[in-house]
Amino acid sequence: MNSKQIKYTLFAIVSTIVFAGYASAQITINIPKIPKLPKPDKTKQVVDNTNSTSGKTEDPNDGRPNSNGNSGDFCSNDMMVGVYMKDIETTRKQAEEYKPGLRDYYVQDFSDRQNIYLKASLSPSRRKEWLGTWPTDIVNCITPALDKLGEVAKKTLPTYTPKGYALGTPAELKILRSGVNDLDQATVFKVGMSSPNWLISKDSYNFPTARYRYGLIWAKYPGLDDGFCRIIYVNLVQDYAGGGTYGASYANFIKSEFAGCPLGK
């Protein structure tokens, strides 16, 4: 194994650890599921933090694919790149085939309740943040695939909008809004819950721990650079208080995802 192979083998190991929160191909979620258990952190921001500093790796090849020009060989043979390319292609195919009513999600999540590939394909700032410290060889392999994914998503994503979620009292909907602590930055189009009935979370001994209802917020953040709206999933939760009773309701942020916007918005 020559020095360049050793270099990228080490980088692949480190990158797998560092970017595990962004993209893991080991665990896939075919249909997004809302977790049953409430989390201690009850409010979250939807706007991605793109202001973090990203160092730039020194490239001895001065921006060229690699020193011997065999960028195609590297893209085909590097194990980490192969994993990312496979997941990007899976996302592209799902985006391409999507039609309203086909399924209740746009593309699958890969880890951390998100699809980082879709985000990086549509948001220049998110792509810069994700790829900012990667060697040029890897960036050159992945960038064309992200570009193709973005082209497809821009055609079909506008048709992905929330259906249902028309229930909830004014007080309940107000609580759902409290689950997103930067919602004041957004234009909100819809807030609602999907069912009037409570679902019960239980522990390993089959004792109740909480009850919850699925909620949703459809909104647009003008400050984001991708141009799309967001579907924000927020559960209405009540912790079990014993004796068949439950405590006060609170909002539990689950995730946000890209979505189309209302016509003209």
What does this structure look like?
Helices cover 32% and strands 19% of the residues. It folds into two domains: 3-30 and 78-159, no CATH class; 170-259, no CATH class. Strands 1, 2, 3, 4, 5 and 6 form a six-stranded antiparallel β-sheet that branches. A hairpin with a 5-residue loop joins strand 2 and strand 3 (208-220). It is an alpha+beta fold. The radius of gyration is 21 Å and the shape is globular.
Radius of gyration: 21 Å
For the sheet with most strands, the description reads:
6 strands, antiparallel
Strand fraction: 15-25%
Number of domains: 2
> Which residue ranges are poorly predicted, with pLDDT under 50 across at least 5 consecutive positions?
16-43, 49-70
The ordered string of helix (H) and strand (E) elements is HHHHHHHEEEEEE
Helical amount among residues, as a percent range?
25-40%
The mean pLDDT is 81
Main structural class: alpha+beta
Shape estimate:
globular
Amino-to-carboxy terminus distance: 55 Å
Report the total helices: 7
Total number of strands: 6
